[in-house]
UniProtKB/TrEMBL annotation:
Topology of this chain in the membrane: Multi-pass membrane protein
Alphabetical list of InterPro entries matching this protein: AA-permease/SLC12A_dom, APC_YAT
Cellular compartments per GO CC: membrane
Highest taxon, organism lineage: Eukaryota
Source species of the chain: Hortaea werneckii
UniProt entry keywords in alphabetical sequence: Membrane, Transmembrane, Transmembrane helix
Gene3D superfamilies: Amino acid/polyamine transporter I
Transmembrane segments: 20-48, 60-81, 152-173, 208-228, 254-273, 293-310, 331-355, 361-380
Localization per Swiss-Prot or TrEMBL: Membrane
Start and end residues of each Amino acid permease/ SLC12A domain: 1-387
Record-given protein name: Amino acid permease/ SLC12A domain-containing protein
Keyword Cytoplasm assigned: no
Length: 426
């Protein structure tokens, strides 16, 4: 499931790249842009993978600077710092309002609008879990990983909340350019709410700069998903949960068959050649969202089982390097919330007059597939669920303890390295 949702995010980002590029010109057809992006991903992940870490670091820094810049842009322009001298503040929260009715008027419509936003927000929750993929290669993980998790969680939460707030400040929900972009699948769909606001305020040049940065961000995200998805598939192959030929690597250690499988999945991006970009993006969102929610639900369920094993074996959590708060209530909240939202995600198809077969399939395919894979694996491999007292909680603990005792932190290379670690290292 983790591999599937990572792999599907690649054609999603490719589709997004195509939409953004068409903001400037529609001369190059969608199929051409998709092919170019896929070829670039292939070259980067098969031939230039040694530069992956360095490029992604700078790409991540660029994303942070972009969102900080957009937040500052919102603050300055809402106070009148724009060519029109328009001090609009929170005007659009009153006219047309902060809640857009969806499908129906009145309270029901506003509730469905909020629910749709909640579904879209569920799509964006992935991110903190990716930190765990670096645990095996991190220096002094018992110290570094808790800092990394906290830093990623709080910073993402802050950026998401401020970003959503800024969008509501910048653009009314009935803005003609924005609604036309999504309703008619016009090239203007590449214009994010920020770009729409810049156009409305007659700010020149900056919209193209923002779109260029967003394009770089989308391309970088797709490249990251190619890397992560291929490594996830490689890990499955090493564990015997995927065909053995996928374990083959080249001289640089790149699992090229795994990369090729992910690139084949990228071909789904060509769906937008015969369907609108907005439609295809919605399909990918519908497919990925329940998959992500299932992942988080499984993580919460796994934690609860681990907690039960700790209690059965007398392991005191206070003696561990890190102890999360509000447990087990937080885990139960996450498990129930993610499970409910996974089923709610495709609710629109059940409204009278809104049935759409592709949307139904994309929304509930993973929900049906995951239990089948889980039960099928248990039956075929004849594995069983372990009882709390049977779970191995101390495997390789001695090696980790020894590593922690003998670890010598490396000095900072320079002042810039020190401040980068303070700002971005948690």
């Amino acid at each position: 499931n983790f591999f599937v949702f990572e792999a599907i995010l690649v054609p999603f980002e490719i589709t997004a790249c195509n939409v953004i590029i068409h903001y400037w010109s529609a001369v190059v057809p969608a199929g051409g842009i998709i092919a170019i992006v896929i070829v670039l991903y292939a070259l980067i992940n098969l031939l230039a993978v040694k530069w992956y870490g360095e490029t992604e670091f700078w790409a991540a820094l660029g994303k942070v600077l972009l969102i900080v810049g957009l937040i500052l842009f919102t603050f300055i322009t809402m106070l009148g710092g724009n060519p029109l001298g328009d001090r609009f503040g929170f005007r659009y929260w009153n006219n047309p309002g902060s809640f857009k009715p969806l499908y129906y008027e009145g309270s029901l419509g506003r509730w469905l609008g909020f629910l749709q936003c909640l579904v879209q927000a569920s799509f964006t929750i992935a991110g903190p879990d990716y930190v765990s993929m670096a645990a095996g290669e991190a220096e002094n993980p018992r110290v570094a990983m808790p800092k990394a998790y906290n830093a990623v969680f709080y910073r993402l939460t802050t950026f998401f909340i401020l970003g959503a707030l800024c969008v509501g400040i910048n653009v009314p929900y009935d803005d003609p350019e924005l609604t036309a972009a999504f309703a008619n699948d016009e090239p203007g769909a590449a214009a994010s709410p920020y770009v729409v606001a810049m156009n409305r305020l007659r700010i020149r040049v900056l919209p193209s700069i923002v779109n260029a940065l967003v394009l770089a961000s989308a391309f970088s995200a797709g490249n990251s998903y190619v890397y992560c998805a291929s490594r996830s598939l490689f890990g499955l192959a090493l564990e015997g949960k995927a065909p053995r030929f996928l374990t083959r690597t080249n001289r640089q250690g790149v699992p090229y068959y795994c990369v090729l499988v992910v690139l084949l999945i990228c071909l789904l991006a060509f769906l937008q050649v015969s369907n609108g970009s907005a439609t295809v993006l919605a399909w990918f969102v519908n497919l990925v969202t329940p998959s992500q929610l299932i992942n988080f639900a499984v993580m919460c369920g796994t934690f609860l089982c681990w907690l039960k094993a700790c209690k059965a074996q007398g392991l005191d959590r206070d003696r561990l390097p890190y102890k999360s708060r509000f447990q087990p209530f937080a885990a139960w909240y996450g498990l129930i919330g993610c499970t409910v939202m996974a089923f709610v995600g495709g609710y629109t198809v059940f409204l009278p007059g809104y049935w759409d077969t592709p949307s139904f399939i994309f929304s509930y395919f993973m929900i049906a597939l995951c239990p089948i894979l889980f039960v099928g694996w248990k039956v075929i491999k004849r594995t069983r669920l372990r009882k709390p007292h049977e779970v191995d909680l101390k495997g390789e603990v001695e090696e980790i303890d020894e590593y922690t005792r003998t670890f010598v932190p490396q000095p900072y290379k320079n002042v810039a390295d020190k401040w980068f670690n303070i700002i971005f290292g948690g």
